[in-house]
Amino acid sequence: MDPGRSVCVVVIERMFSHGRVTGNNGEVTRVLIDMAETTDAIDVYWRPGCGFCMALDRQLSRMQVPMHKRNIWDDPSAAEFVRQHANGNETVPTVHIGEQVLVNPTPNDVLRTMQEQVPHLVPEGVEPRPEGKMGGAVRRLLGG
Q: Is the pTM of this model over 0.90?
């Protein structure tokens, strides 16, 4: 991801969340959507030795999902980003897709979110697997 674009999105979101943006909120929304459409990959936050990270990376790579990988042990800003979205913890994998952040997602979670947030990045012919009866029941019980 282009560092300049990342900074711009963070600044806009912070201004908006603090009520400092004036004018038409539709304009702010359009700016965020335009930036999402120019995104060339999803951001995957990981650390060495993480089995869940390796499994997700292997499965997304097999599907040819474009990814920018950020090692939270080598990049303090990446570690801070993860802590902000994982209740202060450094839980990985954490995946940033458009305006959504997923903590310890399944490949299906990533694909569904990509279809909603950055459909232009979903590899041709790749679809999330249908949810089984048990997965659907668990998701409903947990409020998802």
A: no
